[in-house]
Please model this.
Amino acid sequence: MGKTYIAHCQSGYYQYDRAVWVGHGLRNHPYAQCGYTKLEDGTIQFVSYETIVCEISFDGWFHLYGEFSTTTSKQITWFLREYSSDYLSGNPYTCSYGFLRDKYRKGLDYNLKTDETRPAVNGMIQTIGVRV
Model:
């Protein structure tokens, strides 16, 4: 299965397109340029356009890679609702992007399963896809 889309990206003055493949699109937003991939170790990476914007580890630790545009913020919220309904006892409103962004601003990761926090490990924003 999976989802492929052409991400329309911009970096400064330059605009370009990237072909992006993700393991799953969002069920309620099939045309959005975003999706997620579950890695072999159980980590779920959420991709908006071409950028890996957040990760959730197998044991529930949520890591946000930065603060993002309004559109990407909405996509993260949609993803969190889907993740919560699939993995967290069916409660679709466990956390919001705003709540997790506040944790990011304080330098913290948040555990979606246990409500714990820990110091975030600094990471670099990564992009995926092939330039077309």
In short: The longest strand covers residues 3-11. The chain has one domain: 3-131.
